[in-house]
Structure formats: structure tokens, C-alpha cells
């Protein structure tokens, strides 16, 4: 369902240009290995060397060599083991050149003699491979350590866990490359200097820190979902990256319902990408979307994650509830089939968990669509009077939409104008301006607008993301 | 890893009523665990002295100190496995609730 990742260092292009190289197959194998093995290779090397830069450099080097060697020698049966061995040897060379004579180097040299770049066969080695799963999880938790600045956690997670290049991350976050590089350097320096451990937290701490990991992934997704400013509305790379990383966390921690909840939420949101923006780059609200353009495979995967029997010893968490709301939308064949009462119910549970004004806003919209527009308007008035949402454009937008439904066109127009003033992106302003033009049109001049859900709000960010 | 732990006051202390453990217990626990090398309370800024050398001359004054509503009330030197252990220890200190704690790694140590 996700596109193939572009090759990273351009090295596969170089390899593919060689005479006789089976270009597409090798390139595909390297790309796939990059997607599937990068995290494991880097995570293993970081544990062994405690040197993040060395680990990244050696891993990148291994993938470059793979592009060349696999073209001439064929793709190995176990690309992951091949890459880990080549990267480890590269790291060893560098350490030897630096004159490092640590126990770790000696240990590796012994391992070198014992095992080649082949799949392990003896039970002890397979057990050791199993242990590498912990390395990837160690990496995920270390990158999201709360002692690092939030933006550094996001950058480091994308770079080291996700394998994205620094310039790619910089472009995605609209910051200069030097700024992003500096952010990564500082984060790695702090990990080393402050003694941030390379470990999966235990006990009560685990749940708390997992929330932090998921918050980082949610931020990556939100950044891709809606640019905070500017014209480009959708940046698919980051959303796909968030899904891939959430999938990894679920794979590593299958019993954590909130991790599964986040993955389901991201999948169900992303499945609608193609329908969310029209050819002119304008926003299409949920109820006007062509549902045949939703990615059916991704919807199915999201619902599958949602329906997977999980631990039921705790009430549903925030991600789970948000995913269930998206699940209600995904299961409705037509907008009018949407079970809005079920959605209101989920928002009640969300509010009980987090009394946030954005959730109150979304709940009020659902109440309106569940057939109680006046109750919804009263709630939004109360919310506006509380001042809790300040200059959040979706509040007047939601008021405008409800006012339009109950036939108060003038009041709706005033609220649309306010929403346009506050909207942070050009596509959103255009969408609201279109709506404004509709309510300003003399009655009977056009076809009646179908009932709509209003512009989709980005999912509620996790507490730490705020 | 050794950490210098600044124990400081804070204008917004915890008001949940959760008092945690008394300082004596915290000290005893960490002395026994070997995670506390030294530590003490510090007298207030009124009793502090400022020393500077400028153009070869030693200038001694009773201020000015940084205007701050938060001041350092004490310190401990911790010896921990890593930052997570230091955080766990700091979070049990009563001033993590009544004030705030800053963990600073020593310059020389595992880092560079």
C-alpha cells in the first residue's frame, strides 16, 4: 500500500548503471532491505558501539555496498544478516583505525571468525537474533526519551529509527538543513553526555514512556497531515513514515492496546488521503468525499488492527477511542449511514480521559450531526464564551456549518468570515470561502447543499504533543 | 555516571497533597544504595558572597545576584547507572514536589 521508498544514497543508481547488473531486482531488493532492515542494523550497532554516528555511517555504508555487491553476486538469502555483518565489519574497521581496543571490539572479532554473512542456524545464535528485537525497541524508546527536546525526539526518531536522510527530514519540517543537522547532533550529544540509557523502561515507567513514543509518532503524522502554514496541504511522506514506525512499535509490543490504537488511527486517516483534496488542491469535507477513492486495503488493515482482540483489562485509551471514531466513518458506505450516536459516545469517553476544548468542539459537531443541531450550537456558544479555544478557526467554522443547517444564513456567513480570518492554511481559507459564497447566495439560487460534517479536524494530539 | 543535583525552590510547587517520603528517608535510602556521594542544604542568598577578579583586582561584594524567585536550596552528588536511575532518585526527593530538581552530568565521565 505504501510506495517504494526511494533509494537513499543514490548508490543503487550507480550500481544499476553497471553493465550486466540486474537493475530493477537489485534496486528493489535494496529498497526493501532498507525499509525492513535499517532499524535492526542501526539498533544492533548502537548497542554494540554506543556511538550513534558510527552506527548510522556503518549502516549507510552497508546499504551502499549491498547495491554494488548484490548486483554482481546476487541478493543473499538473508539480507538482514548480510547487512548487519557488513555494517559491523565496517564499524570494526573504523574503531580499529581510531585505536579503540575495547572489549567490544575483541568480542566482535571473535564473532567475526565464528559466523559469516549467513543466516544463523544454531539455537544460541537464533536466540541472539531474537534479542535484536529488543535493540529496535531500545532505539525507539531512547529516541523518544523525555530528557530530549520534543522536536529532537521527532527528528531523531525519523533519522535513526526511520532511516530518513537529514535533508529529507529538514524539507518535511520546512526548516533549513543545517538547523535539522544541528538538532540531530545536539540530541545525540545529549544522549551521550547526560547518560540517557539505551534501554526499554520497565514497570510503571514503561506505560508512561510508551505514551511519549506514541506522541512522537502522532506528531510525525500530524506534521504530514496538515502543514501548519503554507499551500502544501498534504505531505504524504511523513504520514506513511508514521504508519511504518507505528507498525514497528505494534510488532515489537503487540500487547499494548494504545500502540495498536494509534496504528489503526493512522491507517484509517491515511486511507482517505486521495479523497481529502480535490484536483485543484482544495479540501473536500468527509461527507463530500468520493468514498471509492478511499484506499480500501488500508481501511481494511486499519479495521483489522482495531478489531484484533487486545488486552481488555483497561478502559480504551485516547488513541483507541479516536481510532474507533475513524472506524465508524470507515464502516459507513454513505455519509448518511454514519452512526453519529456511536461517535458521540466515543467523544464522551475521550472527554472523560482528557477534558480538552478541542474534543468538546468535535463532540458538539457530532451531536449536531446526530440530529441535535440546537444542542450543538448551545455547546459551541458555551465553548466560545469560555475562551478556551482562543483563535482556533475550526470553532467558528463548526458554528457556521450548524447555523447553515438550521437555516440561519446571515449568522452562518458571519461565522464563516471569522473562520476565514483565522484559518492557517490557504486550502482551508479557500474551502471556507466557498462555503461562505454558498450561504451568501440568494435562497433558491442553487441546489441545496448536502449535509456535511465540516472540514475534518486533525485528530486530537496526544497530551505531550500540545 | 555522576550527576550534580541542584535542589531548587519553585514558584509553583505541587499542591496535590502527596508528600512523598521525608528527606531523612531519602538520604538514608541513597546512602545505603551507594547512589548518593555527598549533599547538603545551602544557606540563603543573604549569606552569599560574590567574588570576581577584574584587571588583576579581586572584587568582593554581597551581590548583585540574579533576581530570581527560584533559588538553589541544596545539592546532592549522585552516582548512578544512567540518567533514568538519576531521574528515579530525583523524583523521590521531597523537593521534587516542593520545588524542582536539576540534574547536571559532570563534565568528566562517560560523556565527552
Order of helices and strands of chain B: EHEEEEHHE
How many E-type strands of chain A? 0
Largest sheet of chain B: 4 strands, antiparallel
Shape of chain B: globular
Largest sheet of chain A: none
The global form of chain A is elongated
Strand content of chain A: under 5%
CATH evolutionary superfamily of chain B? Dimeric alpha+beta barrel
What is the CA-atom radius of gyration of chain B, in angstroms?
A: 16 Å
Structural class of chain A: mainly alpha
Q: Helix segment count of chain B? A: 3
Oligomer: heterodimer
How big is the Rg of chain A? 25 Å
Q: Most extensive interface: pair and counts?
A: A-B, 11 and 16 residues
CATH topology of chain B: Alpha-Beta Plaits
Helical segment count of chain A: 21
Mean pLDDT of chain B: 91
The fraction of residues in strands of chain B falls at 25-35%
Q: Fraction of residues of chain B in helices?
A: 10-25%
Instruction: Kindly state the number of beta strands of chain B.
Output: 6
What is the terminal separation of chain B in angstroms?
12 Å
Structure description:
- Among the domains of chain A are: 1-119, no CATH class; 347-465, Serine Threonine Protein Phosphatase 5, Tetratricopeptide repeat.
- Chain A has helices spanning 11-16, 23-49, 52-73, 79-97, 103-114, 123-143, 150-161, 166-172, 177-193, 204-225, 236-252, 257-270, 273-276, 296-307, 318-331, 340-353, 357-369, 373-386, 394-405, 409-422, 426-440.
- Mean pLDDT of chain A is 82; it is low at 1-20, 115-130, 227-231 and 444-466.
- Chain A is elongated, with a radius of gyration of 25 Å.
- Chain A has 466 residues and is mostly helical.
- In chain A, helix 6 runs antiparallel to helix 7 (150-161) and helix 17 (357-369) packs antiparallel against helix 18.
- With 112 residues, chain B is an alpha+beta fold.
- Chain B has a single domain (2-105), classed as Dimeric alpha+beta barrel (Alpha-Beta Plaits, 2-Layer Sandwich), CATH 3.30.70.
- Helix content of chain B is 23%, strand content 35%.
- Chain B contains three helices and six strands.
- Chain B has helices spanning 23-33, 83-92, 94-98; strands at 2-9, 36-41, 50-54, 57-61, 72-79, 99-105.
- In chain B, the strands form two sheets. Chain B has a four-stranded antiparallel beta sheet.
- The longest helix of chain B is centred in the N-terminal third of the chain and has 11 residues, at 23-33.
- Chain B starts with a strand and ends in a 7-residue tail after the last strand.
- The interface between A and B is medium-sized, with 11 and 16 residues.
- Chain A: Residues 141-191 form the RNA polymerase sigma factor 70 region 4 type domain.
- Chain A: Pfam families: DUF6596, Sigma70_r2, Sigma70_r4_2.
- Chain A: Belongs to the sigma-70 factor family. ECF subfamily.
Amino acid at each position: 500500500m505504501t510506495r517504494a521508498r526511494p533509494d537513499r544514497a543514490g548508490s543503487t543508481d550507480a550500481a544499476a548503471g553497471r553493465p550486466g547488473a540486474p537493475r530493477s531486482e537489485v534496486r528493489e531488493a535494496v529498497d526493501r532491505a532498507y525499509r525492513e532492515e535499517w532499524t535492526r542494523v542501526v539498533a544492533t550497532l548502537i548497542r554494540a558501539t554506543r556511538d550513534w554516528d558510527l552506527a548510522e555511517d556503518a549502516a549507510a555504508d552497508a546499504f551502499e555496498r549491498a547495491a554494488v555487491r548484490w548486483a554482481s553476486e546476487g541478493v543473499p538469502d538473508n539480507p538482514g544478516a548480510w547487512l548487519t555483518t557488513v555494517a559491523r565489519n565496517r564499524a570494526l574497521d573504523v574503531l580499529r583505525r581510531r585505536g579503540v581496543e575495547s572489549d567490544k571490539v575483541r568480542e566482535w572479532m571473535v564473532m567475526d571468525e565464528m559466523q559469516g554473512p549467513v543466516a544463523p542456524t544454531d539455537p544460541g545464535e537464533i536466540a541472539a537474533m531474537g534479542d535484536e528485537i529488543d535493540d529496535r525497541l531500545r532505539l525507539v524508546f531512547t529516541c523518544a526519551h523525555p530528557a530530549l527536546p520534543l522536536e529532537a525526539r521527532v527528528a531523531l526518531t525519523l533519522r535513526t529509527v526511520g532511516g530518513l536522510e537529514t535533508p529529507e527530514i529538514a524539507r518535511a519540517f520546512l526548516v533549513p538543513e543545517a538547523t535539522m543537522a544541528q538538532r540531530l547532533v545536539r540530541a545525540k550529544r545529549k544522549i551521550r553526555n547526560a547518560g540517557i540509557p539505551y534501554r526499554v523502561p520497565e514497570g510503571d515507567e514503561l506505560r508512561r514512556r510508551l505514551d511519549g513514543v506514541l506522541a512522537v509518532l502522532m506528531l510525525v503524522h500530524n506534521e504530514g497531515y496538515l502543514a501548519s502554514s503554507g499551500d502544501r496541504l498534504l505531505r504524504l511522506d511523513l504520514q506513511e513514515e508514521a504508519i511504518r514506525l507505528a507498525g514497528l512499535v505494534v510488532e515489537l509490543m503487540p500487547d499494548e492496546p494504545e500502540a495498536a490504537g494509534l496504528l489503526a488511527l493512522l491507517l484509517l486517516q491515511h486511507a482517505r488521503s486521495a479523497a481529502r483534496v480535490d484536483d485543484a488542491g482544495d479540501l473536500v469535507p468527509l461527507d463530500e468525499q468520493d468514498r471509492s477513492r478511499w484506499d480500501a486495503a488500508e481501511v481494511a488493515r486499519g479495521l483489522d488492527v482495531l478489531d484484533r482482540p487486545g488486552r481488555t483489562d483497561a478502559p480504551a485509551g485516547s488513541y483507541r477511542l479516536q481510532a474507533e471514531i475513524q472506524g465508524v466513518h470507515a464502516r459507513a458506505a454513505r455519509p448518511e449511514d454514519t452512526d453519529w450516536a456511536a461517535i458521540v459516545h466515543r467523544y464522551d469517553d475521550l472527554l472523560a480521559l482528557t477534558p480538552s476544548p478541542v474534543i468538546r468542539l468535535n463532540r458538539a459537531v457530532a451531536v449536531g450531526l446526530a440530529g441535535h443541531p440546537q444542542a450543538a450550537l448551545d455547546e459551541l456558544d458555551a465553548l466560545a464564551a469560555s475562551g478556551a479555544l482562543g483563535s482556533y478557526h475550526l470553532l467558528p467554522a463548526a458554528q457556521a456549518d450548524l447555523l447553515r443547517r438550521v437555516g440561519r444564513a446571515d449568522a452562518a456567513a458571519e461565522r464563516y468570515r471569522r473562520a476565514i480570518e483565522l484559518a492557517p492554511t490557504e486550502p482551508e481559507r479557500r474551502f471556507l470561502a466557498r462555503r461562505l459564497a454558498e450561504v451568501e447566495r440568494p435562497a433558491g439560487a442553487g441546489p441545496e447543499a448536502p449535509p456535511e460534517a465540516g472540514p475534518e479536524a486533525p485528530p486530537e494530539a496526544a497530551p505531550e504533543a500540545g | 555516571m555522576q550527576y550534580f543535583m541542584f535542589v531548587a525552590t519553585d514558584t509553583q510547587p505541587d499542591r496535590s497533597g502527596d508528600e512523598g517520603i521525608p528527606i531523612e528517608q531519602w538520604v538514608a535510602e541513597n546512602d545505603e544504595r551507594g547512589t548518593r556521594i555527598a549533599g547538603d542544604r545551602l544557606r540563603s542568598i543573604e549569606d552569599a558572597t560574590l567574588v570576581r577578579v577584574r584587571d588583576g583586582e579581586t572584587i568582593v561584594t554581597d551581590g548583585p545576584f540574579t533576581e530570581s524567585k527560584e533559588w538553589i536550596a541544596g545539592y546532592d552528588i549522585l552516582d548512578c547507572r544512567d540518567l533514568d536511575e538519576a531521574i528515579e532518585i530525583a523524583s523521590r526527593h521531597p523537593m521534587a514536589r516542593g520545588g524542582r530538581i536539576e540534574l547536571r552530568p559532570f563534565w568528566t565521565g562517560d560523556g565527552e
